[in-house]
From TrEMBL:
The active site is at Y97, E139. The lineage of its organism: Bacteria, Pseudomonadati, Pseudomonadota, Betaproteobacteria, Burkholderiales. This is Flavohemoprotein. NADP(+) binds at G273, V274, G275, V276, T277, P278. The record marks K86, E393 as: Influences the redox potential of the prosthetic heme and FAD groups. Consists of two distinct domains; an N-terminal heme-containing oxygen-binding domain and a C-terminal reductase domain with binding sites for FAD and NAD(P)H. The gene is hmp. Belongs to the globin family. Two-domain flavohemoproteins subfamily.
């Protein structure tokens, strides 16, 4: 990997204010430009995020962060890890990087025009090449350790309804081979053709059980859509059109939000809504390994109608003295029973919950909507929990800091 010169670094850093002001305009133009020249890449990128604008905004933040830290790339380690796992799950290959680079740099020139001179663009070309080399190398290591590469056919062995919003799909290799192992907390990419968009669309879903050699289970929330958010194309296709016997194509397990299995510390699993799925995998794995670690399972959802895996959690707590639960319902239904279905009314408040009886030196795993995760992280920091013990998962366009 080539090293940037001092002048190149200075030129890239000098563009930081410009990226702050025009970054999203550049990245929106970049995607339009790239898709116009390479429409086949629409099969790789989430087109819903293109429509909503969240993907261009995310890329703009990433480009800005890279430029701002071009002289101290070590601080980008966690972000690079998360992105490369996502890329490997989507089967991003080295040949994609020159395409992205050509159109990203072209978009900068198209939008900024004479505001950037040739030496600055040369510096950005070198900087992009450096970043591409880092990403390609990291992704090559992930591919070399993956159970398979690309998308592979699996058959739906079973489908189960877990709540009004969530269904589980038990996926077995279509060729009859054993299901691969994985780290609890990892996810799969599932690819389905979306007629409305005219392209394949991959989506990531956390594995929701312990490795067992027979099947890989994902539990998918139907994204019905809201006034400001379109309905989920793939989640609705899975709920409405995928039954036992259906063939789906999936990538190998990826993701660096994983249970630190070698540790002996207590574990606190904190989830909101469908964020419960990787927590089920983590707890199931600890149970399968007969781990003596103390586990506190903290979950928040609206009410019992959308509370997936409720009975499983109740049975688990009853059978394992080292497992405790704290379930919060924000909008209780008349049929919801305190002490049976839920424990607390209202939004999850870790500050109150843990201040009354904290879990010293625990590792905290958090998954849910980005604002939810940020609130829980802030609460833990306020309780003086070391940042190295706080682990969060982010699939989409948000970040948690």
């Amino acid at each position: 990997m080539s090293t940037l010169t001092t002048d190149q670094i200075a030129r890239v850093k000098a563009t930081v204010p410009v990226l702050a002001a025009h970054g999203t305009t550049i990245t929106r133009h970049f995607y339009k430009r790239m898709f116009a020249h390479h429409p086949e890449l629409k099969n790789v990128f989430n087109q819903t995020h293109q429509i909503s604008g969240s993907q261009p905004e995310t890329l703009a933040r990433a480009v800005y962060t890279y430029a701002a830290n071009i002289d101290n790339l070590g601080v980008l380690g966690s972000a690079v890890s998360r992105i490369t796992h996502k890329h490997a799950s989507l089967n991003i290959r080295p040949e994609h990087y020159p395409i992205v680079g050509r159109h990203l740099l072209g978009a900068i020139v198209d939008v900024l025009g004479d505001a950037v001179d040739k030496p600055t663009m040369d510096a950005w070309e070198a900087a992009y090449g450096q970043l591409a080399d880092i990403m390609i190398g990291a992704e090559a290591r992930l591919y070399s350790g993956a159970a398979w590469t690309g998308f592979r056919p699996f058959v739906v062995a079973r489908k189960e309804i877990e709540s009004d919003e969530i269904a589980s799909f038990y996926l077995a290799p279509a060729d009859g081979s054993p299901a691969c192992s994985f780290e609890p907390g990892q996810y799969l990419s599932v690819k389905r053709f979306v007629d409305e968009l005219g392209v394949d669309q991959p989506r990531q879903y956390s594995l929701s059980d312990a490795p067992n050699g027979h099947w890989l289970r994902i539990s998918v929330k139907r994204e019905a859509g809201r006034e400001d958010t379109p309905a989920g194309h793939v989640s609705n296709l899975l709920h409405d059109g995928v039954e036992a016997g259906t063939i789906v194509h999936v990538s190998a397990p990826m993701g660096d939000f994983t249970l630190k299995r070698a540790r002996t510390t207590p574990v606190v699993l904190v989830s909101g809504g469908v964020g419960v799925t990787p927590m089920i995998s983590m707890l199931s794995t600890l149970l399968a390994e007969r781990s003596p670690r103390r586990v506190t399972f903290v979950h928040a959802c609206r009410n019992g109608r959308v509370h997936a895996f409720r009975q499983w959690l109740n049975d688990t707590v009853a059978a394992h003295p080292n497992v405790a639960r704290a379930v919060f319902y924000e909008a209780i239904d008349a049929t919801d029973r305190q002490g049976v279905d839920y424990d607390f009314e209202g939004r999850l408040d870790l500050t109150k919950l843990l201040a009354q009886g904290g879990v010293p030196d625990a590792d905290y795993y958090i998954c849910g909507p980005v604002p939810f995760m940020q609130a829980q992280r802030d609460a833990l920091v306020a309780l003086s929990v070391d940042a190295g013990r706080i682990h969060t998962e982010v699939f989409g366009s948000g970040t948690v800091e």
